[in-house]
Design brief:
Layout (H helix, E strand, L loop, with lengths): L9 E5 L2 E4 L3 E2 L5 E2 L13 E5 L2 E5 L4 E3 L5 E3 L1 H6 L5 E4 L2 E4 L6 E3 L6 E3 L2 H4 L8 E6 L2 E6 L3 E6 L2 E6 L2 H4 L8 E6 L2 E6 L12
Protein backbone atom coordinates (compact mmCIF):
# COMPACT_ATOMS: atom_id res chain seq x y z
CA UNK A 1 0.00 0.00 0.00
CA UNK A 2 1.29 3.45 -0.86
CA UNK A 3 0.02 6.75 0.47
CA UNK A 4 1.38 9.53 -1.73
CA UNK A 5 0.30 12.19 0.76
CA UNK A 6 1.69 10.20 3.74
CA UNK A 7 0.13 9.38 7.10
CA UNK A 8 1.60 11.74 9.72
CA UNK A 9 0.24 10.07 12.89
CA UNK A 10 -0.94 6.75 11.47
CA UNK A 11 -0.11 4.00 9.02
CA UNK A 12 -0.88 3.39 5.37
CA UNK A 13 -3.49 0.58 5.02
CA UNK A 14 -4.43 0.80 1.32
CA UNK A 15 -4.03 3.08 -1.69
CA UNK A 16 -4.07 6.54 -0.05
CA UNK A 17 -5.97 5.16 2.97
CA UNK A 18 -4.60 6.00 6.42
CA UNK A 19 -5.42 4.28 9.71
CA UNK A 20 -4.86 6.92 12.38
CA UNK A 21 -3.21 6.26 15.73
CA UNK A 22 -5.57 6.89 18.70
CA UNK A 23 -6.04 10.61 19.30
CA UNK A 24 -5.55 11.67 15.66
CA UNK A 25 -7.88 12.19 12.70
CA UNK A 26 -8.02 13.54 9.12
CA UNK A 27 -7.23 12.11 5.69
CA UNK A 28 -3.49 12.14 6.44
CA UNK A 29 -3.89 11.70 10.26
CA UNK A 30 -2.29 15.12 10.73
CA UNK A 31 -5.04 16.62 12.92
CA UNK A 32 -5.39 16.22 16.66
CA UNK A 33 -8.71 14.60 17.63
CA UNK A 34 -10.53 16.66 20.26
CA UNK A 35 -11.68 13.80 22.50
CA UNK A 36 -13.42 16.31 24.79
CA UNK A 37 -16.02 16.93 22.05
CA UNK A 38 -16.85 13.23 21.56
CA UNK A 39 -20.20 11.70 22.52
CA UNK A 40 -20.37 10.10 25.04
CA UNK A 41 -18.04 12.50 26.80
CA UNK A 42 -14.84 10.81 28.04
CA UNK A 43 -14.79 12.71 31.35
CA UNK A 44 -17.45 12.99 34.01
CA UNK A 45 -16.81 16.65 34.86
CA UNK A 46 -14.21 18.56 32.88
CA UNK A 47 -11.91 17.64 30.04
CA UNK A 48 -8.68 19.19 28.72
CA UNK A 49 -7.68 18.26 25.18
CA UNK A 50 -3.96 17.57 24.67
CA UNK A 51 -1.90 16.69 21.57
CA UNK A 52 -3.00 13.14 20.67
CA UNK A 53 -4.81 12.61 23.96
CA UNK A 54 -6.86 14.25 26.73
CA UNK A 55 -6.93 14.66 30.52
CA UNK A 56 -9.93 14.55 32.86
CA UNK A 57 -10.26 16.78 35.89
CA UNK A 58 -12.94 17.39 38.48
CA UNK A 59 -14.89 20.35 39.77
CA UNK A 60 -13.83 21.75 43.13
CA UNK A 61 -15.01 19.52 45.96
CA UNK A 62 -14.54 16.33 43.92
CA UNK A 63 -11.70 13.88 43.65
CA UNK A 64 -10.47 12.25 40.41
CA UNK A 65 -10.81 8.47 40.59
CA UNK A 66 -8.52 6.06 38.63
CA UNK A 67 -11.35 5.30 36.14
CA UNK A 68 -11.77 9.02 35.29
CA UNK A 69 -14.92 9.53 37.35
CA UNK A 70 -15.25 12.17 40.06
CA UNK A 71 -16.14 11.32 43.63
CA UNK A 72 -17.48 13.86 46.13
CA UNK A 73 -14.94 14.69 48.80
CA UNK A 74 -15.41 17.01 51.77
CA UNK A 75 -11.66 17.36 52.16
CA UNK A 76 -11.27 18.41 48.50
CA UNK A 77 -14.01 21.02 48.95
CA UNK A 78 -12.09 22.48 51.87
CA UNK A 79 -8.80 22.74 49.94
CA UNK A 80 -10.45 24.63 47.01
CA UNK A 81 -8.33 23.25 44.12
CA UNK A 82 -8.54 24.67 40.58
CA UNK A 83 -8.51 21.22 38.89
CA UNK A 84 -9.71 18.79 41.57
CA UNK A 85 -7.59 16.83 44.00
CA UNK A 86 -6.41 13.43 45.21
CA UNK A 87 -5.93 11.98 48.66
CA UNK A 88 -2.60 10.27 49.30
CA UNK A 89 -2.18 8.57 52.71
CA UNK A 90 -4.79 10.88 54.21
CA UNK A 91 -3.06 13.97 52.77
CA UNK A 92 -5.01 16.08 50.27
CA UNK A 93 -3.10 17.31 47.21
CA UNK A 94 -4.34 19.48 44.36
CA UNK A 95 -3.88 18.06 40.85
CA UNK A 96 -2.87 19.54 37.50
CA UNK A 97 -4.38 17.86 34.39
CA UNK A 98 -1.16 17.90 32.38
CA UNK A 99 2.55 17.24 32.89
CA UNK A 100 3.17 20.68 31.34
CA UNK A 101 1.47 22.38 34.29
CA UNK A 102 2.71 22.69 37.84
CA UNK A 103 1.07 23.71 41.10
CA UNK A 104 1.47 27.40 41.80
CA UNK A 105 2.87 28.81 45.05
CA UNK A 106 -0.62 28.69 46.63
CA UNK A 107 -0.78 24.90 46.07
CA UNK A 108 -4.27 25.23 44.53
CA UNK A 109 -3.94 26.71 41.03
CA UNK A 110 -1.89 25.38 38.12
CA UNK A 111 0.65 27.45 36.20
CA UNK A 112 2.20 26.67 32.83
CA UNK A 113 5.71 25.23 32.54
CA UNK A 114 7.51 26.77 29.56
CA UNK A 115 9.16 23.59 28.23
CA UNK A 116 10.94 25.64 25.54
CA UNK A 117 12.89 27.82 27.98
CA UNK A 118 13.49 25.14 30.64
CA UNK A 119 15.03 22.78 28.06
CA UNK A 120 12.49 20.02 28.83
CA UNK A 121 11.36 20.09 25.20
CA UNK A 122 13.51 18.35 22.61
CA UNK A 123 12.98 19.40 19.00
CA UNK A 124 15.11 18.19 16.08
CA UNK A 125 17.78 20.60 14.78
CA UNK A 126 15.61 22.12 12.00
CA UNK A 127 12.58 22.68 14.24
CA UNK A 128 11.85 25.29 16.88
CA UNK A 129 9.91 24.86 20.09
CA UNK A 130 6.57 26.63 20.58
CA UNK A 131 5.17 26.70 24.14
CA UNK A 132 1.43 26.18 24.72
CA UNK A 133 -0.60 26.14 27.94
CA UNK A 134 0.22 22.76 29.50
CA UNK A 135 2.34 21.51 26.62
CA UNK A 136 4.52 22.46 23.59
CA UNK A 137 5.01 21.51 19.95
CA UNK A 138 7.86 21.58 17.45
CA UNK A 139 7.48 23.81 14.39
CA UNK A 140 9.75 24.15 11.36
CA UNK A 141 12.45 26.81 11.74
CA UNK A 142 11.91 30.08 9.85
CA UNK A 143 12.93 29.55 6.23
CA UNK A 144 11.72 25.91 6.28
CA UNK A 145 8.31 24.35 5.58
CA UNK A 146 6.74 21.00 6.45
CA UNK A 147 6.65 18.71 3.39
CA UNK A 148 6.02 15.00 2.85
CA UNK A 149 9.16 13.62 1.16
CA UNK A 150 10.67 10.12 0.93
CA UNK A 151 7.92 8.51 3.02
CA UNK A 152 7.94 10.96 5.94
CA UNK A 153 7.28 14.54 7.01
CA UNK A 154 10.35 16.76 7.01
CA UNK A 155 11.18 20.42 7.37
CA UNK A 156 12.42 21.38 3.92
CA UNK A 157 14.25 24.57 2.96
CA UNK A 158 12.03 27.20 1.31
CA UNK A 159 13.68 28.48 -1.89
CA UNK A 160 12.83 32.18 -1.51
CA UNK A 161 14.30 32.88 -4.98
CA UNK A 162 11.73 30.58 -6.63
CA UNK A 163 8.76 31.48 -4.40
CA UNK A 164 9.57 35.19 -4.96
CA UNK A 165 9.47 35.94 -1.24
CA UNK A 166 12.94 37.54 -1.26
CA UNK A 167 13.46 41.29 -1.00
CA UNK A 168 16.40 41.55 -3.38
CA UNK A 169 16.87 44.69 -5.43
CA UNK A 170 15.70 44.74 -9.05
CA UNK A 171 19.39 44.92 -10.06
CA UNK A 172 20.46 42.03 -7.82
CA UNK A 173 20.60 38.25 -8.06
CA UNK A 174 18.90 36.07 -5.46
CA UNK A 175 20.95 33.12 -4.12
CA UNK A 176 19.13 30.49 -2.07
CA UNK A 177 20.80 29.22 1.14
CA UNK A 178 19.64 26.67 3.75
CA UNK A 179 16.83 28.37 5.66
CA UNK A 180 17.47 31.76 4.07
CA UNK A 181 18.72 33.58 0.96
CA UNK A 182 21.35 36.13 -0.12
CA UNK A 183 21.20 39.04 -2.54
CA UNK A 184 24.17 40.00 -4.72
CA UNK A 185 24.21 43.11 -6.92
CA UNK A 186 24.53 42.32 -10.62
CA UNK A 187 27.63 43.25 -12.62
CA UNK A 188 27.97 47.01 -12.96
CA UNK A 189 26.08 47.65 -9.70
CA UNK A 190 27.31 48.09 -6.13
CA UNK A 191 25.54 47.75 -2.80
CA UNK A 192 24.15 45.36 -0.22
CA UNK A 193 21.98 43.43 -2.66
CA UNK A 194 18.89 44.98 -1.15
CA UNK A 195 20.07 48.37 -2.41
CA UNK A 196 22.08 48.47 -5.65
CA UNK A 197 23.37 51.57 -7.42
Amino acid sequence: ATCGHGCKYGECMGPNKCKCFPGFTGKTCNQDLNECGLKPRPCEHRCMNTHGSYKCYCLNGYMLMPDGTCASSRTCAMVNCQYGCEEVKGQVQCLCPSGGLQLGPNGRTCIDIDECSTGKAVCSYNRRCVNTFGSFYCKCQLGYELKYTRGRYNCVDVNECVTNTHRCNLHAECLNTQGSFQCKCKQGYRGSGFDCA
